[in-house]
Amino acid sequence: xxxxxxxxxxxxxxxxxxxxxxxxxxxxxxxxxxxxxxxxxxxxxxxxxxxxxxxxxxxxxxxxxxxxxxxxxxxxxxxxxxxxxxxxxxxxxxxxxxxxxxxxxxxxxxxxxxxxxxxxxxxxxxxxxxxxxxxxxxxxxxxxxxxxx
Length: 149
What we know:
Blueprint: H1 6-13, H2 17-21, H3 42-54, E1 61-63, H4 67-80, E2 89-93, E3 107-110, H5 113-129, E4 142-144
Helix pairs in contact: 3-4
């Protein structure tokens, strides 16, 4: 099957690449609802893949709510003999410091947390000087492509 890019995922889903990068499990048309342990943990990833595997509903790509879920999913995929990325592409979210050190380095969406913090402090300082001030910010996440896609 070869590698799949975020652009491929977005086109298949009929959404923008940014929207595709932040899709959580169970949302959107045609995506099966899956059980969640609810802790954004490795266990969530394991439970999700077990559920889909038992029902023979393994998708071509999964975008996880965070890297911990993706790491649990990768471990479960290895246990079920599902080849990454040939049979299942996996994208995490947050670009955990360990994402590049996995057996199959994890593709992940990086959020500029330091920039978020700086902007929040700037906004609070400006708000103190002008309480009526309102702003709207858009910060684009960045896809860090590694070996799981």
